[in-house]
Amino acid sequence: MQKYDEMYTMLPFDGSDVRDHYKAYAQWLAQQPAQTMAARAAEAEMIFRRVGITFAVYGEKDANGAGTERLIPFDLIPRIIPGAEWTRMQAGLVQRVTALNRFIADIYHDQDILRAGIVPRDLIANNAQYRPEMEGVDVPRDIYAHIAGIDIVRAPNARGEGEYFVLEDNLRVPSGVSYMLENRKMMMRLFPDLFTRHAVQPVAHYPDMLLDTLRASAPARAASDSATVVVLTPGMYNSAYFEHAFLAQQMGVELVEGPDLVVKDKVVYMRTTRGLQRVDVIYRRVDDDFLDPLVFRPNSTLGCAGLMDAYRAGNVTICNAVGTGIADDKSVYPYVPEMIRFYLGEEPILSNVPTWLCRKQDDLKYVLAHLHELVVKEVHGAGGYGMLIGPAATRTEIEDFRRALLANPAGYIAQPTLSLSSCPTMVDAGIAPRHIDLRPFVLSGETVRMAAGGLTRVALKDGSLVVNSSQGGGTKDTWVLNEQAQGQPSPELVQELGGMVQSMGGNW
């Protein structure tokens, strides 16, 4: 199987054949003593632990029976993307997310794409992610996925060149952006000199962009510059609670739980020490099923009774919208290129990974015959769970999946086992290549925009293709270079570095 490394043109790497956009960094890295890098890695772990940058691991208990929390391992060697590559990727992301928003609006209104026969009607009607409660509900600007996390992988094509592919669309409650921001802050703390040598595009403005996006989605009655925004969290035991609190703090808005909200006369209010305060926008980090016990799960205490009535009346905006899961379902994913053609009249800039839909008889037959070489995923799976990686699976695991596929073929898709690109990574044995992916965070408000780069996730186990933190993956800082700056830091990056230095008087 062909391989592609982000930093080197040949593997195994020996310090030669460095790609042009990595040359300045490679020269710097070669001058760093191993013990210095090890000390910086230990310092990063100590700071992350002190600040509390952890995630909860569902299903794991400590010696006292309490849920366990882990640090997401942070790697010191950045993933670097040339500016020209990012420009094309960004255009593809804008195109894709625009089409996905058009698709969600269409599905809950006229359903033109179903009548045209491009997407099978039964794929939507029988889908657990389809919410009939959203039929005919108009939302501000027709935007449903205000925050999208699009998973991008690079793999060698037939010519041996690295090509970007979209692996998944995450449109419900995508997480991970706090690690993107904290990784940059950590790199600036540990290696400030690197940011004076490289024209790295900044990311610290993301919380401001997010707040602007949320306020732009406010109901018409609320002025967008003064709309009251809250972050709705399931609470401190949620795996991404650190991120919920972090983003609320960075945006300067309230972090609330279900009991903090109340609905009166189809209007949502937040309980405060000064009485009830009207809420215009809810950035929810709670799944659909738990948002309103009067509509979804009656035993849920994570949401607010009457919330859907207020939402349907147009008195509050929920970001992301209820029902967005229909567009990131893995069985709908193969149709996104056709959505782009149908809604935008354009050819997709970013390609999908080839995908077999096991609900189709011919596709199922092929998958069953090639389980040992494919990746098979549950259509509603997440976090690296419910997945078979054929080349790494045991015979027993393959046969278990065979039975599951035969019992419920519509619940699975399959894809070829891509040789994900690798990036040099610090491991116990030194510096070695490890597979990576990228999750840019795309914001849809008055316009579609994003911070340059995103969260690079790395599979720390040798040979592993699973980058998810719940499966032992780590993260890296992602640098998008501004070649026009000719190696000089941008004013925005200088401001970002200055802000980091000032913040070191606090938690840092």
TrEMBL record:
Show the InterPro entries listed in the entry.
ATP-dep_Glu-Cys_Ligase-2 (IPR051680), CP_ATPgrasp_2 (IPR025841), UCP005522 (IPR016450)
Query: What Gene3D superfamilies does the record point to?
Result: 3.30.1490.270, 3.40.50.11290
Q: What Pfam family is a match for this entry?
A: CP_ATPgrasp_2
Q: Which domain of life is it from?
A: Bacteria
SUPFAM superfamilies linked: Glutathione synthetase ATP-binding domain-like
Domain Circularly permuted ATP-grasp type, residue spans: 78-459
What sections of the protein cross the membrane? none
Q: What is this protein called?
A: Circularly permuted type 2 ATP-grasp protein
The taxonomy runs: Bacteria, Pseudomonadati, Pseudomonadota, Betaproteobacteria, Burkholderiales
